[in-house]
């Protein structure tokens, strides 16, 4: 680069015209931008017709904004002829030190395994994107998978079950444990509505480890061809933190679906325990 060019660039912040080049300032200017700019291209030349906005007869449909629950409380998330869907949320049900000890115990002593789900439509079997374990006197079946009875409750799990029974008044007889090893692990949209859980199951869900979002979407009416379109469904999200307790009651399985989506950021492991009541005669 010549020293003259360098100097002009430094002083003027860009490539200035060299001092020996004649200025074009007085030449007629070429139009800036595309040729149609500023012209009314929708109308025939000479037309005086003005554009008039007409309100569409039907309101444009849009999905309601997603709600976030992060504070402790009792939330009636819907009331339908079928009944009320109720959530109770306790973000710090277990204090952080105790939650750390429980996390270590559960991480090392639950017999975690990666199992297979079966796709209902294709019959194809695929590895679940998480690890699971089942505790209870009875088997539990969902998504083409059966957990065999397992009565070897860890001491810490028995104590947690007692505490949950005390606050809910429900006598839980089983527990499904999920381990999300990192942000790639997930559970897809589903409801815990197997007949063995009865019509309005109370499910108590404890979380340990990294926070993951627990999402709900309202079940839409079934269309005549039997399909469900969730495009405009109500949605809500609960960040399930270390030591939190979420209780799902009433119609929250019949009228809503839930999931833990895959994350696109790094996540540390998370353990979730869902205490349930299995009625073997309903299964
Ligand atoms: O990990 C969670 O918080 C939810 C697990 C779940 O949806 C289930 O076990 O049915």
UniProtKB/TrEMBL annotation:
Residues spanning the membrane: none
GO cellular component, one term: nucleoplasm
Top EC category: oxidoreductase
Reaction equation(s) it catalyzes: an N(1)-methyl-2'-deoxyadenosine in single-stranded DNA + 2-oxoglutarate + O2 = a 2'-deoxyadenosine in single-stranded DNA + formaldehyde + succinate + CO2 + H(+); an N(1)-methyladenosine in mRNA + 2-oxoglutarate + O2 = an adenosine in mRNA + formaldehyde + succinate + CO2; a 3,N(4)-etheno-2'-deoxycytidine in single-stranded DNA + 2-oxoglutarate + O2 + H2O = a 2'-deoxycytidine in single-stranded DNA + glyoxal + succinate + CO2; a methylated nucleobase within DNA + 2-oxoglutarate + O2 = a nucleobase within DNA + formaldehyde + succinate + CO2
Sequence segments annotated as region (Disordered): 1-38
InterPro entries assigned to the protein according to its UniProt record, in alphabetical order: AlkB-like, AlkB-like_sf, ALKBH3, Oxoglu/Fe-dep_dioxygenase_dom
Subcellular location: Cytoplasm; Nucleus
Subunit structure: Interacts with the ASCC complex composed of ASCC1, ASCC2 and ASCC3. Interacts directly with ASCC3, and is thereby recruited to the ASCC complex. Interacts with OTUD4; the interaction is direct. Interacts with USP7 and USP9X.
Name used for this protein in its record: Alpha-ketoglutarate-dependent dioxygenase alkB homolog 3
Native source organism of the sequence: Pinctada imbricata (Atlantic pearl-oyster)
Lineage, opening ranks: Eukaryota, Metazoa, Spiralia, Lophotrochozoa, Mollusca
């Amino acid at each position: 680069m010549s020293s003259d060019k360098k100097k002009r660039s430094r002083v003027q912040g860009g490539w200035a015209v060299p001092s020996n080049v004649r200025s074009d300032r007085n030449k007629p200017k070429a139009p800036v931008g595309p040729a149609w700019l500023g012209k009314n291209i929708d109308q025939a030349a000479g037309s005086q017709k003005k554009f008039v906005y007409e309100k569409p007869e039907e309101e444009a449909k849009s999905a309601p904004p997603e709600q976030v629950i992060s504070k402790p409380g009792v939330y009636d998330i819907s009331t339908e002829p079928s009944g009320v869907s109720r959530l109770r949320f306790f973000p710090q049900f277990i204090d952080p030190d105790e939650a750390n000890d429980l996390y270590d115990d559960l991480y090392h002593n639950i017999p975690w395994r990666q199992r297979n789900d079966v796709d209902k439509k294709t019959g194809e079997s695929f590895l679940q994107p998480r690890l699971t374990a089942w505790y209870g006197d009875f088997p539990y079946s969902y998504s083409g998978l059966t957990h065999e009875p397992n009565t070897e409750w860890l001491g810490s799990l028995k104590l947690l079950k007692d505490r949950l029974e005390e606050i809910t008044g429900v006598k839980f007889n089983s527990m499904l444990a999920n381990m999300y090893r990192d942000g790639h692990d997930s559970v897809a949209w589903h409801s815990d509505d197997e007949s063995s859980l009865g019509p309005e199951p109370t499910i108590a869900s404890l979380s340990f480890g990294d926070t993951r979002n627990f999402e709900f979407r309202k079940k839409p009416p079934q269309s005549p061809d039997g399909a469900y379109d969730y495009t405009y469904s109500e949605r809500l999200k609960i960040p399930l933190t270390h030591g939190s307790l979420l209780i799902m009651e009433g119609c929250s399985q019949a009228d809503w679906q839930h999931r833990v989506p895959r994350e696109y950021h790094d996540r540390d492991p998370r353990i979730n325990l869902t205490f349930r009541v299995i009625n073997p005669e309903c299964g």
